[in-house]
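Project standup — Tuesday

K.O.: blocked on the structure for the chain from last sprint. Re-posting the sequence here as requested.
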Amino acid sequence: MNKSLIALATVSLAGAASAQSSVTVFGVIDAMVSSYSNRSEDPRGLTPAVTVRRTALGHSGYNTSRLGFRGTEDLGGGLAASFWLETPITNDDGQTGISTFARRSTVSLSGPFGEVRLGRDFAPLYWNDTMFDPFGANGVGASVVFTANGAFNTFNPPAPPAVAGIPSVSGNSYARASNSVGYFLPPNLGGFYGQVMYAFHERDKFDPGTATPTALNNSRTGRYVGGRIGYANGALDFALAYGSSTIGDDFYAGTTTAVKTINLGGSYDFGVLKLFGEYSKASKEVDYQVRPLMAAADIDLKGYVFGVTVPVGPGLIRLGYSQVKYDFNLPFSLLDDPKANKVAIGYVHNFSKRTALYATVARLRNKNGAALTVGGPALINNATFTPQTSTGYDVGIRHAF
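H.V.: unblocked you, prediction finished:
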């Protein structure tokens, strides 16, 4: 009996293996030593400034550490079925490994019509942030556009981790969206590319509506819709993306809070250097079923990125400047709008296509109450102290397989 079961299992596994066209294991291990120095000051000059410092062994300073499995089965007639499972790795402490596929977990069907993809995937807006930033949204050099928009899109209230030490996948849809259905254009359109995405909020709907529980954010929060269209030909690449993320709702008050974001980015490779640029505008809006006299004003977040990379032998010099500004749209306010800017410079030395050493230094300056950092500890921000500067560096090694 046992021998028969073993034989049957062997035949089943062999059949599954032969039906699968390809399976690939891939990953990146990126480790770095990082230092952060975040300073807050008393604008009245009555109290000495407070600086919070931290030095740490971290990860993902150049490329995000990850482990992935992907595979494709040829179905004939130009059709293919694929899967992609990718987990983030915290290789500095080993806390996060194959415990969550929070980076990507999708199954898809592709053909001459394009690709339909289901699961957790990168949101359209994120691609412009990472493709048109010389630091690729990683480490202390990542633009303040990416940092500020990530915080701006956090659900109300922020979702706690499902498991201690493992990042939550249900508190933000800016970079990645869960429960999504996506469509990608086929790659043979003369350089044009694009995608659309819809992510379900997976909330319960009650009939009659008065049976809906009174808890906040239980009716519409989590819904996402977005898209991206671009063109790449030779040295030129540019794309326009849009996304709308529902970050909060109150059923009985008749309100829904959404962040609507648009960004436009591009790059041009001259050979001796490559230029990058991006503009982003996000609006946090409260939609009222019955608009009150004292309705909350929309909050806008505008920002831009400029950058350049210069190849030097086996190495690459990276330079970036980014800025964001918040607008609370208060008609009678005498206060200046909060804003922040960041300058970053880095160098990558490629020993091979898979192994590289890198170093990055960045300095961020906050003004008028903005409280962004390059990483590390939070700035002191209270009635006495106002966030001022954040400085940091990464020195690390990246190996891909």
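K.O.: great, moving the ticket to review. Residues 43 and 386 are 7 Å apart (CA to CA). Confidence is low (pLDDT under 50) at residues 1-18.
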